[in-house]
Structure formats: C-alpha cells, structure tokens
Write a structure and sequence with these properties.
It is a single chain. Helices cover 58% and strands 6% of the residues. The protein has 634 residues and is of the alpha/beta class. Among the domains are: 62 residues, no CATH class; 173 residues, no CATH class; 91 residues, no CATH class. It has a five-stranded mixed sheet, with helices on both faces. A hairpin with a 2-residue loop joins strand 1 and strand 2.
Length: 634
C-alpha cells in the first residue's frame, strides 16, 4: 500500500470518527486536504480521546518519513491586514556608469540645442540625482571639451565616408545675424549602390571683414581642403550674389577671364611681329619684379574652386518678383495691380499689427491671413492664394465684413478677379520652386524638365486671362533672360536624359535633345573598358580601331537605355556606363536650399540669449546636431 493511500485511509477514519460526517463528504482528495488543513488539531485530539494508538502511531511514522525525504518550500503567507502586492527592491538595481551619464547629457544638449549652462542648473542636477543617486554631473568646461572631441570624431568618420565616394556636390551661402556673419557649406552625394542621396553639413564658419570674392574663395578652398574633397566636387550651387559669381568666375574651373585677358594683352601689345633677332636681343635683358606685386594681380591660381551652379530657386524668385514688376509698363495692368495690392497690403498690415483685427478675421473668414515676406520664396503667392481661398470658401461677404470692421477699402469684383488670375499664374512658379528646392529626391536632371513644363503651363494659361496677360509676358521674358544659358547647357540636358523618369520625353525640341545625346556619347565610358587591352591583328593595322569599338558599345548601351519602358531609378543599374555618368551629372543640386535649412537650424541655436557664444562652440554643436548619423552618443 502506498503512502498516499495509507495516510488517506488513516486520516479519513480519524476525521469520520471526530466530525461524524458521512464518508462522501471527504471522498475526494481535494476536499480531504481542505478539511485536513483546518481540522488537524481536532483530528489529533480526537485520536487521543478515542484512544486509537495504533492509527496515531502509524500516521506519525508515515508523515515523519515523508517530510524527511521530500520537503516542499512554500512561500510564507503575508501578515494579516497587509497588501499582497510585491514591492520592487531598488537597492539591487544596475547603476549607470559616469561615462554613460556624460554621453546622455551631451546628447541632450546637442540634439535639444540646449545651452552649455544647463549642466549648472540646480534643477537639472536634481533631475539626474533623482534618476541616479550619487551621480556626478560633468561641468560646463568638460561638456564644452567633450563636444569638441565628439566633433573631431564625427569629422573623421565623415571624411572616411566621403573618401569612398567619387563625386560630391556642395551648396554654400552667407548668413548674418546678431552682428556676426557666417558662411555655411553642405555636401551631397549619391550612393553608387542604392542611388540614394546623402547630405551632410560641412561648416558654418564665421567670416570677418568684408565679404569680398577673395574672402569667400579662401574660406571655400580651406573647407574643401579640410575635408579632402577638392578634387571630387563636381559643382557648387550658390545664390546670385555678385561676390560669389566673381569668386567662381576667377577661381573656378571655367577659367574664362584669365585666358581671354591674356590673349587680349598679347594682341594689343603689337610685339607679335618682331623678327627672331629682335626677340633674341630682348631675351638678354632680365627684368626683376617683386613676387608680391605679381600675386596681387589675381591670376586665378591662388585658390581652386569647382564648377559653379546658380541657384534655380533664387532665379525663379527673382523672376516672380523683380521681373514681374516690368508688367507695370502696361498702363491698364499697372492701374488694377496697384489698386488691388494697396488694399491687400492694408489688410495684411492690420492683421499683423492688431490682435483685435486678427480675431475679427478669424471669426469672419475661419482662417488667418498670410503676410508676404520679401526674404521668403513664394510668400506673395501664398498670401494672395489665402485671400482667394477665403473668397471661394466663405464668399465675398466674409472679406466685405472684415474690410468694413477694420475700415479698409473693399476689394471690388475686378480686383478679386485680378487676384484669382494672379494666383493662377504664380501657382506653376511656386510649384516649380517647391520641386527644385527639395533635397532628398531631387537631382540636377530635374531642372530643365521643370523649366520646360513651367513655360508650357504659362502658355496654356495666357489665352484665358483678362487682366494679367502683361504679367505672363514679363515672366516669360524673365525666364528667357535668366535661364537662356542653362537651357542650352549640354551637361544639364544630358543630366535630364539620364534620369529614367524623363529620358527624352520632357521636350520635343530635337535640337536640344541632340546636344544632350552628343554629350552623352562623348562622355560615356565604354561598357567594357578593358576589352581594348587584348589587341588583335586588325587593331595593329588600324590605329583608330579602339575608337570605333568604344563608340559602338556606347551607342548600343544608350539605345538600350532609351528603349526601356521602365521609369524607376533602379533601371540605371542595368547599364553600368549610363549609371556612372548619370551619378556624376545628377549629384549636384539645382538649388542652394540645403544651406538655407542649415541656417534655419543655426538660428534656433544662436538665439538672442546666446549671442555671446563662441563661434567654434557654435559650429561644433551645430555640426553634431545636423550630422548625428555620423556620431553615436550611445
């Protein structure tokens, strides 16, 4: 008989005798266990009173032997009246090291654009102490030096990453704030495997003195040399400032002025007809000249700058603002334009200067007005578009009520129609600027198709206009004057053709396409460049046979690319030579908006309360913020 059956029989008999209950009450083991737990003392007492020595003795022996062989550990029951929820013991939790705390603090300061003095605030110290008792927080000088070291480490990784790239493009611009001037530079490249664009910030360095072309050239040259990318930059995109234009005209790759000036000097000297004897006699005379005076001439060899690209968005903004004013030469247009915008300007001024006026506009129009800003692209279009939208959604009555409440002359139907036409004309301009100022999914090849479609849209809009035809004429003339050289650049035409999205579908001008295709055939490397190393007997006979084979291979690959119906970017991977040339031509950006975004972040960091911040500390914190993918704070 097993222990369980014997113990059950003994205790069952004892319980039945003591409690005098029916046998079915304890027929199951679970019921027996419950009763056993509560009535054990009564069972023992009953056994003693009723004198069952043989059963009690058997039960004691069995329980003792079982407890000695198998001991079960049961959790102690909580005291009566206390909660059963377990408490977390923090005394044994893992402590964070001082190094990790310092990294976390530095990440908070850099990515949050916090001042260095935040580590000296008592509230910040209390926060760290609450999270990690007895923790030591770095001081402000330690934080400053840590950020400087982190910036050096980030730059090393950035230089290593760009060393593996063959083609790089940059954008640059100048920025003045808090009585200090800075030059900002960003770098961009296309990954040769995924064809994704990568963008980084290279510098936001203080400029001292006048922003002459020589100062800008020296700053650009130094920064390019610091990152070891001078020979990799294909183009640098800037705005249309005269100092930038002159810097790249003199020190850029074009080298236009030097050769032309030197040729003119030779032609005007009149000494080219001297006979040989006179030349030999003159050679015997040695003239000495100071080197400093020669360097002051500015021969273009002091600095080396890449090829220059004017910002397309800046040019379009000049067309929509400066060139558009030439439409006022038409008296009818000038009359309605000035009357309309004078009333709009009064409305914009009221909404910006008075809180009561802003509340009145919000209640009547359900929207606030947008005030134009001369330094913002598309600002005038967005302001007019908002007025047209209010009239369309809320009706003319909403604008009439606002003008009556603010005591402003009401826009008449002719002026409202003029605003509608103005919005329709400027909408394609604004869309083109938005497309070209992008950074992630934009290449240089988007420039010419965007300009071509813009001109086509303006041509389609013009016949339906009643008041604003002179405006369209002025814009079209501005586009022609400012983009004529860009529209005829074979390299930019080829860049558009080498994008699968466009190929040759973006224009019907065969002359334009021929320029681009000829450039591609001339620049494209053969599909198998090493095939010519294995010369045959025919190659020995024909000295120019390699030119023929290379031309045939290039033409065959180009025809295959143009014949594919697919328009996704991965199509380029099928044609290696096409892909390599496309990467080189489409690495640059058509606009310098990336540098403007750098300055936007810099403005958040260089706040009025931090106007005394050292320029090197400012640049270090800004570069770590913008290039956080090249530094691990963990």
């Amino acid at each position: 008989m097993t222990w369980d059956s014997l113990a059950l029989s003994v205790l069952r008999t004892a319980l039945l005798s003591a409690l005098k209950v029916e046998s079915r009450v304890v027929s199951s083991a679970r019921t027996f266990a419950v009763i056993y737990g509560f009535c054990l003392e009564r069972v023992v007492t009953a056994l003693e009173k009723r004198k069952h020595p043989h059963q009690l003795e058997s039960y004691s022996k069995l329980t003792q032997s079982h407890n000695s062989s198998q001991k079960r550990k049961c959790p102690a029951s909580p005291p009566a009246g206390t909660s059963k929820q377990l408490k977390l013991d923090m005394s044994s939790s893992k402590r964070v090291s001082k190094v990790n705390i310092n990294k976390a603090v530095m990440k908070f300061v850099v990515e949050g654009l916090q001042p260095f003095s935040v580590v000296d605030l008592q509230a910040f110290k209390d926060l760290i102490q609450d999270l990690q008792p007895n923790a030591t927080i770095m001081s402000r000088p330690t934080l400053r030096s840590s950020i400087a070291e982190a910036t050096k480490s980030m730059k090393k990784k950035l230089i290593a990453a760009m060393s593996e790239v063959e083609y790089i493009a940059t954008t640059t611009d100048c920025w003045t704030t808090r009585r200090r001037s800075f030059i900002g530079i960003t770098a961009h490249w296309l990954d040769p495997d995924s064809l994704d664009r990568h963008s980084v910030a290279l510098a936001c360095r203080q400029l001292k003195g006048s922003h002459t072309f020589e100062v800008l050239a020296a700053a650009l040259n130094d920064i390019h040399a610091e990152y070891q990318i001078r020979d990799k930059i294909v183009r640098t995109t800037t705005d249309n400032g005269s100092n930038f234009l002159k810097a790249f005209r003199i020190y850029g790759d074009q080298d236009e002025n030097n050769n032309a000036t030197y040729t003119e000097e030779l032609s005007n000297s009149g000494e080219g007809d001297d006979d040989e004897e006179e030349i030999q006699e003159e050679e015997e005379v040695v003239n000495y000249q100071e080197v400093a005076s020669m360097l002051d001439i500015g021969d273009g060899f002091e600095y080396h700058l890449p090829k220059h690209q004017r910002c397309a968005c800046h040019l379009l903004n000049l067309v929509s603002t400066v060139d558009a004013l030439k439409a006022n030469s038409n008296e009818a247009y000038k009359k309605v334009s000035r009357a309309t915008f004078s009333k709009c300007q009064a409305l914009w001024n009221k909404s910006a200067r008075s809180a009561l006026a802003a509340e009145t506009i919000q209640d009547a129009c359900k929207l606030q007005l947008i005030r134009p800003n001369a330094t913002r692209w598309n600002s005038m279009f967005l302001a007019v578009e908002r007025l047209v939208r209010i009239v369309k959604e809320q009706g003319e009555g909403a604008i009439r009520d606002v003008c009556t409440s603010l005591k402003i002359p009401m826009l008449n139907p002719t002026e409202l129609a003029f605003l509608t036409e103005y919005s329709a004309i400027m909408s394609p301009m604004a869309k083109a600027i938005d497309i070209l100022q992008a950074e992630t999914n934009i290449q240089m090849g988007w420039l010419l198709p965007t300009l071509t479609q813009l001109k086509a849209k303006l041509d389609r809009i013009k016949p339906s206009l009643k008041y604003s035809k002179p405006l369209v004429d002025a814009i079209q003339l501005g586009l022609k004057n400012r983009f004529s050289e860009i529209l005829e650049d074979p390299e930019l035409i080829a860049a558009a053709i080498l994008l699968p999205k466009f190929k040759t579908l973006w224009t019907k001008d065969e002359t334009v396409l021929k320029k681009g295709l000829d450039y591609i055939n001339l620049e494209m490397e053969p599909l198998h460049p090493l095939s010519n190393l294995h010369a045959t007997s025919s190659d020995d006979d024909d000295f120019f046979s390699s030119i023929k084979s290379n031309s045939q291979e290039s033409s065959k690959e180009l025809e295959g690319y143009l014949g594919c119906c697919a328009d996704h970017t991965s199509l380029l991977k099928t044609f290696p030579s096409i892909c390599k040339l496309s990467i080189r031509l489409n690495t640059p950006l058509p606009a310098s908006a990336a540098c403007e975004r750098l300055f936007s972040t810099a403005g958040l960091l260089f706040s009025p309360r931090r106007a005394r911040m050292d320029s090197s500390n400012f640049e270090n914190q800004l570069l770590l913020k913008l290039n956080r993918s090249f530094y691990n704070f963990e």
